[in-house]
# Entry
Amino acid sequence: MGDMRRTITGKAIVRACALAAAVLLAPSMVSGNGTVPGIRVEIFGDASTLHIEGKGIQIIDTYRNLALFRNPGYSYLILSAGNNGLVVDRKLYPARMVTLLFSGGVVKINDRLLRGHLEIANIDNSHLVVIDVVNLESYVAGLVNAEMPHNWPLEALEAQAVVARTYALWQKERHLNQYYDMAADFMDQVYSGAGSEDSRGWKAVNATRGQIITYQGKPILAMYHSECGGETENSEDAIGYRYPYLRSVKCNFCKGAPGLNWKYALSLQQLARRLIVKGYTLSHVYGFRVMKRSRTQRVTVARVVTDHGNIDLDGATLRSVVGYDKLRSTLFHVRAKNGTLFFKGRGFGHGVGMCQWGAYGMARKGYTYRQIIHFYYTGVRIEKLY
Ligand SMILES: [Zn+2]
# Structure
């Protein structure tokens, strides 16, 4: 078994392990039977050392269902990847994947507070992957405050809770063959664990417990973004696929939001460097031109003229090259002067689905979370799953 495993890649091992573990350990994740579904979140994809602190810690060899460590009291452990095993407090255990259980509600790992239980796997004997298996309500509670300031109106937080719950379920249905449902970074949703939970976040989660947004009976892809800048985007223009519920709507509710209007200057030289970092072949950039805009005037194709020919980038790729926090949206105009591009734009994010600052504006004006959701998602229903 060991030899065969060594021939496959680390990631494949984790997937295989995690699937086995999911079958062995995870509670029923079937929706609609009253049970809160579990969500698997990748917390660390590439950790060298884990500092683990908590009460009632048990470390179990996931394959053999064998306890390697157990302390009902408070423990402080250091865990790292070893040769075909895991090193717990300098002792090597021949387990490539372990399940970490704890009592007391949360465990602290490298300054993150986490709920549920954890799966920790050795990848290529060099680093560790940590998956948090947490119930959906706790996951949403950890998310709401990471995605929205805790002092925002409750109706906005409630809308965010329903949206985050729905998004997580949609992801889960599509990741059935993968070892996690969600990555903990902003490409999915920003989950930092229980550390970001607070009482208002939990209030919003509990007030909407089990509620999700559906279209024709299925959880929707509940995309959202920081601020649309006046009009949200049709999904096909941002992600290349038309969802009937992700339609452009005029949004006046984010008017006056901080950072709504932005400017950014980028030299052609800097653009060349960023393209090279992303793996494009070129030495110099000579020009930049907007080739195509969507109906809402967002840039959908931009052409970069280089010494190795033209590179056409779609809006999302352009933002990833320049930097998502630099080119805050694709709703911009650009002017070139003396080898520098001057961008002037509006909004923050891809513009699809719920505009978070718009949700804030609506809540301040007295709209309910249901009205907020129905405003940004066309033709949907809000249903209670459990
Ligand atoms: Zn807006």
